[in-house]
Structures are given as structure tokens and as C-alpha cells.
Amino acid sequence: MELALTGRTALITGASAGIGAEIARVLAAEGCRLHLAARGKERLEELAERLRAVHDVEVHTHPADLRVAADIERLANIDGPLDILVNNAGDVPGGSLTAVDEQAWRQGWELKVFGYINLSRLVYARMKDQGKGVVVNVIGAAGERPDAEYIAGSTANAALMAFTRALGSRSWRDGLRVVGINPGPVATARITELIEKNARFAEIAADFPFGRPAHPREIADMAAFLASDRSGYTTGTVVTIDGGLSLI
């Protein structure tokens, strides 16, 4: 499907690996100019070099920590137009209420919950001035299917689902769209490590729908579609890609 994204500019956070890197690959293949942000400079540069070589697109890298206000400000003020923001950075710790202490809880939320909100606040204002733009929040299906053993992440994701729906419900008045994606298990390094080291997760993985986790490309393709004019009447919506797990 031709998504007509050629020449548009996208900022992707958490872009150095996993879902974020795959979204970068898909948008590069669609002809987007890219701004890639993550904490790991070397991995960002490696990805950027590959994307430039394979797709002949403009790619800029921005080592940044979304817990730091100055880094958020810098990302929100990148040069040139900004058509697409993909909020994807996040590393909320697993564990029960008693296992996750206040410091770990706050640290995880500063990156994901407040990172998404604070960057969106600045970018939204910029897009509003332009009269166009799309914010895509990659959230997580635990917000729909809360897990007491992932309580910090489940609560964070539920908050970001509400944020996406609330902001997206009125964004059309500003010419903007705000949408979300709730991935379930995805074949990333983090999932692989969990399966190898966590007996409970390994047991869950044995019964994944279709016998596998989702491929990052399946999430990335949805992100590209939602960011395109092919999905131009979609806002305030959160799309779940979890093989039906949240319905059980």
C-alpha cells in the first residue's frame, strides 16, 4: 500500500533497538526524513548509517534521555518541519507492588509516562502552529490486561491509553491526530531475555497466540499506517496488536 509519506519528517524516540528501530526502518522505506532519539549514541549511529545506505534518506541522530527536561526541549525544537512524532521510549520495571520500590517506579515513569507527556506537550504546540501533524504513542497491552507482577508497567500503560484518548478526542480541532498502539508480546531482545530467565514468562510464552510473539515489523507497519493520510479519520484510538491475549 502506498502511504504517501515521502518527504515527511518523523521524530522517533527509543529508536536504537526493538520496535523503535523497526519503525525507523519502515518509515525510511516510505521515504521519510528521520530524527532518531535514544540514550545509546553508538547504536543510533549504526542504525542511521544503515538507513541512509539502504533507503537514501536523510537521518539525524539525537542522543537523549527523556527524563531530562533539556533533552526534551532540544528534541521538540529540531530544525525544519515535524510531521510525525512516535513516542516509543520506555523501560518500566517488572515486579509486584512490594518488589518495585518508589525509586524504580518513579524512574520508569519519568522515562515513559512523563517522557511521552512532556515531549507531546511541546511537539503538539509546534504541530498546532503548523496546522498538521500526527502523534503515535507506542504503549503496551498490559494497560488493557493489568498484571499484578507488572504493576508499574500496567498502570503506566493505562495512564498513557487515557492520555492518548483524551488528547486525541479534541486534537482534530487543531488539525492534528493522536493515536496509540498497544503491542502485546513482541520478538525483541527484552522478550527473549524474559523467556530465558523468567520461568513464569517462559510458561506464558509456551501458549502465545499463533505459537509466537509478534514481529516488530507488524507493530511498525501499523505505526506507519496510522501516521499516514490513509488513516486520516483516526484519532483518539488505541489499536491493540496482541494476538487476542487481552480478550481472554
UniProtKB/TrEMBL annotation:
Xref: SMART domains:
PKS_KR
UniProtKB keywords: NAD, Oxidoreductase
All copies of the Ketoreductase domain together span: 8-189
* Segments forming a coiled coil: none
Family to which this protein belongs: Belongs to the short-chain dehydrogenases/reductases (SDR) family.
Identification of the protein by name: SDR family oxidoreductase
To which species is this protein native? Nocardia tengchongensis
Lineage of producing organism: Bacteria, Bacillati, Actinomycetota, Actinomycetes, Mycobacteriales
